[in-house]
Amino acid sequence: MTRSKNRPLIISDCDGVLLEFIAPFVAYLDSVHDMTLKLDTFALTGNVRHRDGRVVEAAAFPPLLDGFFSTHMPSQNPVAGAADSLARLAAYCDVVVLTNIADHHALRRTDELARLGMPYRVIGNQGSKGGPIKALLDEFQPSHAVFIDDLPPNHSSAKDHVPHVHCIHMVAETPLRGLIPAAPHADIRIDDWHEALPHIETLLKGLS
After folding, report:
1. Domains in the chain, please, with CATH?
2. Is the pLDDT of residue 84 over 80?
């Protein structure tokens, strides 16, 4: 029996792609821990500093991040165009949010995204994303798949596991755009949802 063609699948990162992260995280560091964030590189670890300039040790960073997601997730605002673009795609695509966040925060993130007009399935992940992307493609069996993320290693991982997935490297937060280099394994770099949406729609139309 021939399997009918399923809907396209959109797999999107969250922080820095769907939700703003840098500004609310800086506000959290300042108000709760009296710390600052100096963006010398795109890695957050090593850039968090005490007020006297001392770098916060790498081992102390995970608890800071966990605290932010525990108490300040509602302070994150949607990236411009993200909710409207996904809503338009969701009319004929399946949408999944694949985010590197601890499992115990995934349900809260699902609720927050829904509150902000993005009522999609959320999968918490740790580390590289190629394996989870392959698992999603095995589950959905989509006609086509698009992966959107801000970190170059995640695109390399995606292509290692599922070479045919279309990878869009998106750095939606302006302060990071000059710090994150081009992702060598992404198919295209687009930092704005208002440009990404027509690109995805044209791609899917051409492949249908």
Report:
1. 9-20+78-207 (3.40.50.1000), 22-74 (no CATH)
2. yes
Nearest to 133 by CA among 109, 113, 153: 153
CA 194 – CA 192 distance, rounded (Å): 5
In the prediction, which pLDDT does 1 show? 31
Q: How many CB atoms lie within 10 A of CB 198?
A: 11
Residue 30: pLDDT band with limits 50, 70, 90? very high
**CA-to-CA distance for 24 and 185, rounded, in angstroms?**
30
Contact (Cβ atoms closer than 8 angstroms) between residue 44 and residue 127: no
Gap between the terminal Cα atoms of the chain: 21
Query: How many CB atoms are closer than 10 A to CB 118?
Result: 24
Check residue 43 and give its pLDDT: 74
Integer CA distances (angstroms), 37 to 13, 14, 40, 138, in order:
22, 20, 9, 39
166-169 and 145-149 as β-strands: parallel, antiparallel, unpaired? parallel
**Residue 197: what pLDDT?**
98
Burial (0-12, 13-18, 19+ Cβ within 10 Å), 68? buried
